[in-house]
Design goal:
281 residues; Rossmann fold; Glucose Oxidase, domain 1; eight-stranded mixed sheet; 12 strands
Length: 281
């Protein structure tokens, strides 16, 4: 258990660790609970904690306590060669997208999904999916009922996460989306014009030139700008890519946040509103 970003609700995280402890051996350092302004302790503390977890060959997963902000201050400094030598799950979302980006560059699958604080809410839906996702990652999984925005079928590796973090990673040269990737995006509390700015920058940079499809997750509490909605922006910016696009995946900052193994092969049938993962792809 690590806290590489912002501070968190101590009770929820302790509850989450308690639930994990019923099934797994949980390790953490008490410095995890430190707070420095809007960060979970100093950069040195958080980077040291992250590197220790990356280097530990006895760990099966690194689970984030919470997202928030702060990982992009240290993510580029971490020792990812250790992750290549000792692959393990990285679990989290939002700010943890920065770690998913680094894992993807190494060709290592990572798990975009709820963190320890979410597990601490005693949500059976989330807890059952945690076990299934991490223990049987190659099991066939179907996400149905998506909304078709641009029809078509494509197979590729899943990539993406939080749009703001993808934008930040591209600005630092850390974002490398694989050719033919199925891009999943979500965000929270970003006005429509800001979403437009981030997507426009990604498009102009060429970062999205080689993707094969897009799945839009939750854009929570994202207000309109001059009567233009976030949905309007997403459709106008993404449909121009000419690839299959679907929306409506429970992926992001809402209560129900699906576990999605980034880097795993999948098929998006945007015409049928279906995203399918499994050994056949």
């Amino acid at each position: 258990m690590i806290a590489p970003s912002g501070p968190f609700d101590r009770t929820l995280v302790l509850r989450g660790m308690g639930w994990l402890g019923r099934r797994y051996r949980v390790e953490f350092d008490w410095s995890l609970f430190e707070r420095t302004g809007f960060l979970a302790g100093s950069d040195a503390r958080r980077l040291g904690e992250l590197n220790d977890a990356l280097h530990d060959p006895g760990l099966s997963a690194i689970v984030a306590a919470r997202g928030g902000y702060g990982l992009t201050r240290i993510a580029h400094l971490a020792e990812y060669g250790a992750l290549r030598r000792h692959p393990k799950w990285i679990v989290g979302f939002s700010d943890i997208t920065a770690l998913h980006v680094e894992a993807a560059t190494l060709g290592i699958v990572s798990m975009h999904g709820p963190n320890a604080a979410a597990l601490g809410r005693s949500d059976d839906w989330t807890q059952r999916r945690f076990v299934r996702a991490l223990e049987t990652p190659e099991a066939s999984t179907r996400f149905e009922g998506l909304r078709t925005l641009r029809p078509g079928v494509v197979r590729g590796r899943l990539a993406g996460g939080n749009l703001s973090l993808l934008f930040a990673c591209q600005a630092t040269g850390r974002l490398h989306l694989p050719a033919g990737a199925i891009l999943l995006i979500e965000d929270v509390t970003e006005a429509a014009y800001r979403v437009d700015r981030m997507l426009s920058a990604l498009l102009a940079s060429g970062a999205l030139d080689r993707i094969g499809g897009v799945v839009i997750g939750d854009f929570s509490d994202c207000p309109d700008s001059q009567r233009v909605s976030v949905q309007d922006v997403l459709e106008e910016r993404l449909l121009g890519l000419g690839v299959p696009v679907a929306s409506g995946l429970h992926f992001g900052h809402e209560r129900y946040n699906e576990f999605v193994p980034l880097g795993m092969s999948a098929e998006l049938d945007a015409s049928a509103g279906l995203l399918e993962l499994g050994p056949n792809f």
